[in-house]
Specification:
Order of helices and strands: HEEEHHHEEHHHHH
Radius of gyration: 23 Å
Structural class: mainly alpha
Largest sheet: 3 strands, mixed
Number of strands: 5
Number of helices: 9
Length: 305
């Protein structure tokens, strides 16, 4: 895997950090949302502009910023390639090589060569988004109103993209479309159907007929499972990030005047959670790909190794 092949590893996203806020105004007549009963993060992103009829939400803005940052870093690190890397080029090569070796150890070199662009991109994308969401001001700068519990931001200018289910669902759907293409490219339409419905192992006579019925029924359940994968992938990531942001919000208000101190250990917990969720999303998609694209001969060879 060459560094030039690895250059287009780009994507975007972000999360939120609600324990530091700067109210821009106490009200916004045209965009103010109804008063929230709770102080937590809104379950959906807020539309903050609609140029030429195209809606732009606060989570989209953060996604674009993170995407631009990843693109700029990749271009900066590879602008002057040298045989002996140093500085940002050295770090970029180490990052790409580490990810490639890690993914290759899971799904094998053949599949990695074909799918590395996606798995590395999605990992860097989600990780950068999760960590960017912890920057003070994301999710806590915007318009709001005063309540009995203090000033509440009801319309933040910025919101973490992974705390927006639209973003996580879009990533899951992109994977699902790529997964179908990879599967048909590797095993073909016949192999795809065989992998799902055909009985496994050796059998004969009545037992073979029974196995055909059993594996056909299992294949129907597998189809349902495959169709629900985008939903499970998207809500797993969204739920964890959304819950983490609300946890920071709750901890920051637990002890009045010392919220910034109480939230520190949970802040570091969210840093770790950002890595874990990026790894989980990447690993699940990689394993799903390996299970459908692995040839029967390769499986048998691995079993005898």
């Amino acid at each position: 895997m060459s560094l030039q092949q690895a250059r287009p590893l780009l994507v975007a996203s972000v999360a939120i950090s609600p324990y530091f806020f700067v109210p821009l105004a106490s009200g916004n007549p045209q965009a103010m949302l109804p008063e929230l009963a709770s102080h937590g993060l809104s379950a959906k992103a807020v539309e903050i502009a609609r140029p030429l009829g195209f809606p732009i939400t606060n989570s989209m803005i953060v996604s674009w910023v993170v995407a631009f940052g990843l693109i700029a870093f990749a271009q900066f690190a590879t602008r002057k390639m040298t045989p002996i890397p140093a500085g940002t080029q050295n770090f970029f090569e180490w990052l790409v090589e580490s990810l490639y070796n890690f993914i290759s150890g899971i799904i094998g070199p053949h599949l990695t060569d074909r799918t590395f662009w996606f798995f590395a991109s999605i990992f860097l994308f989600i990780l950068s988004a999760n960590w960017a969401g912890l920057i003070p001001g994301v999710g806590s700068i915007g318009w709001g109103h005063h309540t009995d519990h203090g000033f509440v931001i009801s319309q933040p200018v910025l919101r973490g993209a992974n705390a927006d289910v639209n973003m996580t669902l879009a990533m899951a759907l992109v994977f699902f479309a790529s997964w179908v293409v990879w599967a048909f490219r590797e095993v073909g339409a016949k192999g795809f159907v065989k992998e799902i419905f055909a009985p496994k192992g050796e059998s004969a006579g009545v037992l073979k007929l029974l196995m055909i019925v059993v594996f056909f029924a299992a294949g129907c359940l597998e189809i349902v499972s495959i169709l629900f994968r985008p939903i499970s992938l998207s809500f797993r990531l969204y739920g964890n990030i959304f819950a983490g942001e609300n946890l920071l919000e709750a901890m920051s208000k637990l002890v009045p005047g010392f919220g910034w101190l109480v939230v520190i250990p949970f802040y570091f917990l969210e840093l770790i959670m950002g890595i874990v969720q990026a790894l989980v999303f990447m690993l699940l998609t990689a394993v799903f790909t390996m299970l459908i694209c692995q040839h029967e001969s390769e499986t048998a060879a691995a079993a005898h190794a």
